[in-house]
Amino acid sequence: MFESARRYRLYGLTLASHIELPCRRAGQRARVDVCLVEGTPAEFARARARAGRLPRDWFHCRRLPDGAVYLRWRGNFEFLVSADGRHIRYHRNTRATLESLTVYLLAQVLSFPLLARGSDPLHGTSVAVGHEAVAFVGDCGYGKSTLGAAMLARGCPIVADDLVSLQRRGARWLVHPGIPRLKLEPRVAAQLVGSPVRGERMIRGAAKRVIPLAASQSVASARPLKAIYVLAAPRRRGPISVEPLSPRDGCLEIIRAAFNLVVHDRGRYANQFRVASHLAGAVPVRRLAYPRAIGCLPAICDAVLADLAALPE
Q1: What pTM was computed for the model?
Q2: Which DSSP string do the residues of 219-268 spell out, in sequence order?
Q3: What is the number of other CB atoms lying within 10 angstroms of the CB of residue 291?
Q4: Which fold has domain 122-310?
Q5: Which one of 26, 81, 184, 293 is most buried, counting C-beta atoms within 10 A?
Q6: Helix, strand, or coil here: 204?
Q7: Which residues contact 149 (CB under 8 A, 6 or more apart)?
């Protein structure tokens, strides 16, 4: 069934799909980690029945008795992820665009196969600085993508936006490339990425747009992680500061930066703590505070680059 499917590579996974996705292609002989297929109405009717009565929230996720995960963005699309994370079925409502489906598929939904494989992705933005990578993490609305776009304007291509997938290799940690795009508000994109602003809205009614990146604006291979910057809460004024965090505090911030917040089982918590403690012990973690003003972004980029240059090789 999937012999003729396109193969894509992102987050360290090879994804087979019959629908075209905005990802880098993998060779047709590449070993497939996750298969994406359109589900039938009967399959999703059974999944909803097993999920039981669902609230009328915009987003809902429920673990089914067989270990599969049912996800729904009400009125837009549904997904069914197998217990082992190797198969994803989707159903798209007629009001939802293919672009919006891929935005949620290629981040929130793919986080479940990553968790099933022992990875614990972070909610952040990563850019390449030389042959290495840095990651910016923080709560929603803290400016991760905006800072990533500012670093891109300084010649630092994007490794991943929104979901940062990490893999331990020996004494180092690698950041795997994600989708070559940024999620930005049009005003920010026009000033930092270029005008005219191209890209679709994430979903109807949303302000942010999905900005596609050129090949020169993103990377195609994994990069060693040089440092993690935890963005402080937004403020209008004040100095730019970079504060080193202890391994203990860094571990807590990494746990707080987890991408998937709906899986709450003991095995996930144990693996999350193990990953965070190893990561904080191997990679410098800093707290980055700065005023939220576009005019300050060049100086913020200077502070980050200066801090990276001072770190030991």
Answers
A1: 0.93
A2: -SS-EEEEEEEEEPPPBSS---EEEE--HHHHHHHHHHTBS--S---HHH
A3: 15
A4: Rossmann fold (3.40.50)
A5: 81
A6: coil
A7: 182, 184, 188, 189, 192, 193
Q: In one letter, which amino acid is 148?
A: G
CB 222 within 8 A of CB 126: no
Give 10-residue mean pLDDT values along the chain (313 residues): 82 94 89 95 93 85 94 92 96 82 90 96 97 96 94 96 95 95 84 62 62 92 98 91 97 96 92 96 97 92 97 87
Q: Which residue has the tokens 């970079």?
A: 242
For the beta carbon of residue 31, count every other beta carbon within 10 angstroms: 8
In whole angstroms, what is the distance from residue 145 CA to residue 185 CA? Answer: 10
| Length of the chain measured in residues | 313
Nearest Cα to 194, choosing from 149, 151, 260, 235? 149
Helices marked H in 108-262: 111-116, 144-153, 186-192, 247-256
Local structure of residue 273 (DSSP, 8 states)? H
Q: What is the rounded end-to-end Cα distance, in angstroms, of the chain?
A: 47
